[in-house]
Amino acid sequence: MKSKAIKKDKSNKKASLGHVLKKNEKIKQTVKKAASELTSVNEVLKQENIPAQIMKQAITQNEDVEQKVAKAADDLKLVNVKLAEEMAERIVIESELADTKTDLAEVRDDLSKAQVKTEEAQQSALQDALTGLPNRLSFEQGLGHGLSQAKRHGWGLAVLFIDIDKFKSINDSYGHDLGDQVLLMVANRLKSFVRDEDIVSRWGGDEFVCLLLEVKQEADVTQLAEKMINRVAEAFEFQGTVLSIRASIGIAIYPADGDTSEILFKNADIAMYKAKGTEQRVVLFRESGEQKVG
Question: Which residues contact 126 (CB under 8 A, 6 or more apart)?
Answer without folding.
Answer: 134, 135, 137, 138, 141
